[in-house]
Records
---
Amino acid sequence: MKVRQEIFDTYWRFSAMRQEVFFNKIKNVPPPWTSDPILNTYKFCNAYRVSDRVSQYLIKNVIYNGNRSQNEEEVLFRILLFKIFNKIETWEYLENKIGDYITLSNFDLDIYSNILQDAMDLGYVIYTSAYMSCASKEFGYDKKHQNHLALIDKMVFQDKVINPIVKAKSFEEIFHIIEGYPLLGKFMAYQLATDINYSEVINFDENSFTIAGPGAERGINKCFIDIEGKSYADVIHWMTENQENEFQRLGLNFQSLWGRPLQAIDCQNLFCETDKYCRAAFPDLKSNRKKIKAKFTPTPQPIDYFYPPKWCINDKVKETLAERLPPLEIPNLQDNCQQLSLELDSFVKPTSKISDNLSKLHKKSQQNTQNKKLKAVQNADTEKSHQLCLF
């Protein structure tokens, strides 16, 4: 294969830098967490898919929550329902309105549909913005969410999809079972197979099968001049198998996930993130997408990271979390005023008086934290000499 060297090397440098940001945030190191201006400006997924906020919520709250049933069919149902919308607020809104945990016994297509329709009528967005989901009227309903709920009903209740899934002999077979249903497609089927594999329902090697999503295909085309007849999946597998050599070649100190190397799903995602990064780093590089849409905004609450117990890394994670510095105070009041939250039961439009009061409160907060910010910046300056820099 013929690589476009500067972009190919950027893939590995981005991976190392993004993982360094991950660990700096975990340890509550004062920002900026990197000296790279692009990473400081725009939002990028983690090097490890499983560390992203929504994946962490899925694992901790939807799959392994001790108050929920660990029956295989219940677990599968919850994963499918959560991931079809892939939004924490939607899941919590549903449970809040139901007044109980989501279970097989309380699933009702019409009730769930009406709850979500009420949310949309109030102006809420119930689907993730991370990717586009299919919106055809496959099951005869006018609204996308109704057809998706009908899909869940067919998979779980009518077809008992749990049976072929638990009998599957390979990760690829899981993918094909899911892909066989409408409204999903190859990319979504791969994502769902990966999420189910986080649970105890199945247990396959993540590196045994992969496919490239549209973003990953764009990233591969930027990193390689010619893949010489190989498939996109072949390229992803090559990256997975050669990661240690490439990090060593470039002198990069890549911090793995507590000893767990990048998996095929991660290398696939990193091609997508590299494609995004290159839009800013190499604007003259041919691309059908020119800009990075999402800007980076810090989240006020740190995540207590938890991974599938079968990976045997959670003890190491706990040790790292125990050593974290006290959390930084990050005032974010103005942003909160502008965001709709599905945690609210009513839709409130702030008056100008309320807005004025919030503005005054925000200014007061800024004054109270000014000394802390100055100290944080000074600390960050000393850290910069130890950061990796892509350019």
Note: Strands lie at 2-3, 224-226.
---
Amino acid sequence: MSPILLLTPGAGQTPACRNRRSPYLFPRRPAQRDYRWLDPTEAPCCSGLHLEVKSANHPTEPQEVIHMVEVRAAGHESSLSFGTGARRRHELTHRDDTEIASILDFLEILPDQALAGLRVLELACGSGRVTVPMAAAGHRVLATDLSIDVLSLLAERLTERQAIQSGIAGRVEIQQADMVSFDIKESFKAVCLPMASITLLNPEQRRATIRCAAAHMAIGGALIASIDQVLPAAAATSTIRLQPDTCLTEEIDHVGRRRRTILRCRDKEYISEHYLVTPEDLVNDLKDASLFLAAQRSTPNPVLPHHISVILGAVNRR
């Protein structure tokens, strides 16, 4: 299992932040609590955060820590999850409320009411487009993502005055975790996988994610997942203009069940690779994980023709 990166506040600070001159503290070997200091210039994608590695019940070797700190250097600059792409994605999507009402409705009706005191686990939370509304509705959320860059954006949002005064910041904890393989010693009333993030995974990874999510759900808990269903009528190649300086090109391989999106913004290009997933695919995966489909809601995508935003809610009855 991969180690989990916990973003914690410094003494007397608001959640998840110290000032930008604070060094980063990482354990070399958690069992010995032997620490070393990293200058902020060594971890530019984490600037402004005090980070502590929590081992997921196994020793963490130094190279694993180095990999997490230097993840941007591995060619992720063209991704919408890392570097400048993470902030660009946030700018384009943080006001998109397409699936939020459905997710909040499902959280009210699907989990057993006896579980109301438990938290929601959010996988692939990004910069908090769904995290913040869930917390605003009164849910306590453990928000996780693999990218430190997007977690940094969420941490910034939680330090805003409105988030603090409204109590939102106090209901959110942020951890770094891989949605395919994570081990958190807690049971949740719901696991939420929004923003069609599950379509980034190949079929084997997708099934592993659902099994892992099911293992973290309390009995009576719910899994809420969304997909972007691409209909057969969708063109093999299409381009739409999102803003005067931003356009999105989509390339669809219906036979190979793959989809590539290319976001061009000014002089930068960000590429995302997706798998085509149908509601039937996801329902079968849920059954394999002994989860029972309880609700499904479909909404035409307001931007992309022949795309349907589908949200499914399944319950753990074991």
Note: Helices lie at 62-69, 83-93, 100-109, 131-136, 148-158, 161-165, 203-215, 279-288.
